């Protein structure tokens, strides 16, 4: 968009159907707070846990989720349907006019959009699905494309990419949910004992059990014995159809922010997570005030540069665009740098590492969000 006299018509999208719905709302509220109202005409779109797209007219309601309170608290499906009818809908059309359809009082009106800014974590937000909608609509959008989003959201495929470029990572065993819960046209009941024996033959306790596509450590457990492994497999299978059972890497949890695309991408300094729990699960991350984030922690000589270089290597190999946080372990005793995962729409809460690392590197949030919106146009017009 080249007309600087005209406000950029931006859709800020948050909430969503993933287990990270609440975190997304907080992140979106933080991002909304730095957007220049003289530069942007912002439409706030909240997606409920059930997948309903709603127009949020009061920005102050975003983080506390008051915008969906009546729907969430509805006593039954009939009450929920009645509550939904009272909310204006705001749906991005896949038509190449890239317009927003707003329904108020039973009447639809059309609003043109210039760019979409999804602050959606996890399923249907970070996995390439909504990115595909934007691409169908020819609507410029912030962040990774549909393919890189899908690859990085799925830990199975991220591991394939990491292996292909020689990036060290935790060894793992792959499991499907039907091996745990049955279904998938199976005629026999799942043999949990056989599955556990297969895992135990390849991995030693303790081991981590992870859903392949869940974010913010949702559904992840640490198994110290067979009983905990079986329980963890059930929890993971409730979150995803693909599960990873990984070796336990004992070491420090180090994170790095990456910004840009291609040869123009850069990595910031590193930060360290000091988890209040045995590992940095969802509760330790967002609900335990004793978990700490440390900027520029003291590391063995050369390790910060190695982490930054490896973060850029995996970022580029996954064809990432815009921003991502890349997570590592620094293994105890060996000081081996071990890749853990990459997050393509990193959290922007008050305790989130990505904005802190960017600020530390001299790039405040207002600046880099503006830059990412400009990059969205560059990609669209390429």
Account of the 3D structure:
With 382 residues, the chain is of the alpha+beta class. The protein contains 13 helices and 16 strands. It has helices at residues 21-32, 69-72, 77-86, 129-136, 146-153, 155-164, 178-181, 192-202, 226-239, 282-286, 303-317, 353-360, 365-380, and strands at residues 8-15, 40-47, 53-56, 89-92, 99-104, 107-112, 115-118, 172-176, 207-211, 221-223, 242-247, 251-261, 266-274, 292-295, 321-331, 337-343. Strands 14-13-12-15-16 form a five-stranded antiparallel sheet. The protein has a four-stranded mixed sheet with strand order 3-2-1-7. Strands 8-11-9-10 form a four-stranded antiparallel sheet. Helix 1 links the parallel strand 1 (8-15) and strand 2 (40-47). The chain is globular. The model has no long low-confidence stretch (mean pLDDT 91).
Brief synopsis:
By secondary structure, the protein is α+β, with helices and mostly antiparallel strands. It has helices at 21-32, 69-72, 77-86, 129-136, 146-153, 155-164, 178-181, 192-202, 226-239, 282-286, 303-317, 353-360, 365-380; strands spanning 8-15, 40-47, 53-56, 89-92, 99-104, 107-112, 115-118, 172-176, 207-211, 221-223, 242-247, 251-261, 266-274, 292-295, 321-331, 337-343.
């Amino acid at each position: 968009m080249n007309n600087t006299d005209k406000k950029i018509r931006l859709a800020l999208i948050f909430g969503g159907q993933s287990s990270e719905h609440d975190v997304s709302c907080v992140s979106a509220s933080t991002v909304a707070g730095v957007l220049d109202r003289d530069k942007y005409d912002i439409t706030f779109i909240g997606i409920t846990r059930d997948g309903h797209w709603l127009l949020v007219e009061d920005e102050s309601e975003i983080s506390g989720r008051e915008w969906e309170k009546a729907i969430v608290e509805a006593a039954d499906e009939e009450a929920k349907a009645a509550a939904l009818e009272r909310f204006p809908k705001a749906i991005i059309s896949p038509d190449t006019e890239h317009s927003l359809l707003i329904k108020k009082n039973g009447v639809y009106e059309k609003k043109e959009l210039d760019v979409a800014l999804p602050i959606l974590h996890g399923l249907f937000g970070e996995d390439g699905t909504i990115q595909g909608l934007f691409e169908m609509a020819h609507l410029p959008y912030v962040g990774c494309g549909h393919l890189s989003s899908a690859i990085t959201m799925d830990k199975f495929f991220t591991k394939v990419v990491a292996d292909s470029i020689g990036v060290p990572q935790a060894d793992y065993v792959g499991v499907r949910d039907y091996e745990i819960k049955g279904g998938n046209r199976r005629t026999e009941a799942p043999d949990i004992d056989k599955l556990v024996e297969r895992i135990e033959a390849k991995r030693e306790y303790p081991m981590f059990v992870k859903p392949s596509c869940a974010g913010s450590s949702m559904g992840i457990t640490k198994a110290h014995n067979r009983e905990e492994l079986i329980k963890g497999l059930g929890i993971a299978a409730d979150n995803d159809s693909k599960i990873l059972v990984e070796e336990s890497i004992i070491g420090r949890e180090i994170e790095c922010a990456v910004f840009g695309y291609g040869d123009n991408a850069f990595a910031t300094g590193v930060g360290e997570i000091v988890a209040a729990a045995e590992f940095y699960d969802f509760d330790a991350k967002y609900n335990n005030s004793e978990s700490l984030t440390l900027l520029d922690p003291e590391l063995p000589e050369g390790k910060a540069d190695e982490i930054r270089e490896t973060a850029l290597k995996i970022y580029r190999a996954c064809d990432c665009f815009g921003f991502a946080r890349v997570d590592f372990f620094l293994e105890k005793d060996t000081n081996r740098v071990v890749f853990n995962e990459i997050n393509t729409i990193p959290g922007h809460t008050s305790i989130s590492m990505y904005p802190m690392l960017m600020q530390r590197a001299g790039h405040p949030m207002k600046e880099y969000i503006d830059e990412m919106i400009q990059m969205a146009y560059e990609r669209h017009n390429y």
